[in-house]
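Run Iron(III) transport system ATP-binding protein through structure prediction, thanks.
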Amino acid sequence: MSLEFRHIAHAYGEVRALEDISFTAPAGEITCLLGASGCGKSTLLGLAAGLLRVQQGEVTLGDEVLADAQRSPPPEARPVGLVFQDGALFPHMTLAANVAFGLPKARRGEADSWLAKVGLAGMGARYPHELSGGQQQRAALARAMAPEPRVLLMDEPFASVDIVLRRKLRRECRILLREAGATVVLVTHDPAEALDIADRIAVMEGGRIIQFGTPQELHHAPATASVGAIFSGAQIISGTRGAEGLDTPFGLWPLESLIGALPDAPAFDLLVQADGLVPVADGRGCSVRDVHPMGPRDRVLLQGADGAAITVETALPVDPDKTYSVLPDPNSVRAFARS
Ligand code: ADP
Ligand code: MG
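Sure, done. The structure for Iron(III) transport system ATP-binding protein is below.
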């Protein structure tokens, strides 16, 4: 069952947190809300969960209105499961009791099998404080999934898990969620996490969605430079229209560097890929600040004349005592009119 947000706006007093948000989290898919702290992710999730009242617009589930300015059923009356950053298990209850808590009496015996599904087989008698952060988060996931809600809302669910476990846990979680067939909306500020787990990503900035799409769609046609910059190795540098191409702090770039045409503007945000850049030892003034070997390639940090920095990943040898310009591969740079 798909979860749809229609023209949602929200303010906390004078603070406008969300502006005209519309998108659909498709049934059985994982949709990530991705954006920096304060961009409105938790507010959006809270409106669907019933933690906040809808002020403007509506949230629908399938054919039914879940909440709008007139009706706001409490969280427990919505067919929605919630998972938060810190798991929020009941500390005085065993794991089995935690998982059984949301289940009807007849189904309470299923708690152990839900714990097994998240890799906590045989741990039902333990208390939360006897578990690692990652295990607690798994238990919180089991508790949210056990009642088999049609919708699962997750706010930074892996943020308190150590970095090493995090990737493993979220990949397992993705499989479990897909198998359960739940419609999932997951909040994260970490682009790598969104790309790792999401079927679709809503990229948010300042209370708005700037692009909604699959990871492939965002990669192939980013709406802004900042959307393109969620992918590893991508970076944004400034450039202006020059006589024969683009003037950048790292050299003059020919128009053949561009994917598509140059927008009609005097100044640009240029989206470039670290492995699509070539350092040229031509004495043009970019100094080498760092050369970091990373296996087959080096990661090189160069600094342009005006102090701007650019990261290049290259297999070519780079001499820290020389100065360089940086040249992009043909068809590798996207130009966006400077906002
Ligand atoms: P995110 O989850 O993306 O970090 P939030 O939805 O928590 O963002 O917050 C969005 C904006 O609303 C921020 O500017 C935040 O400071 C503000 N905000 C959130 N909750 C409250 C609140 N209870 N009272 C006042 N302002 C709030
Ligand atoms: Mg938040």
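Helices lie at 41-49, 95-100, 111-117, 133-145, 163-180, 191-197, 215-220, 225-228.
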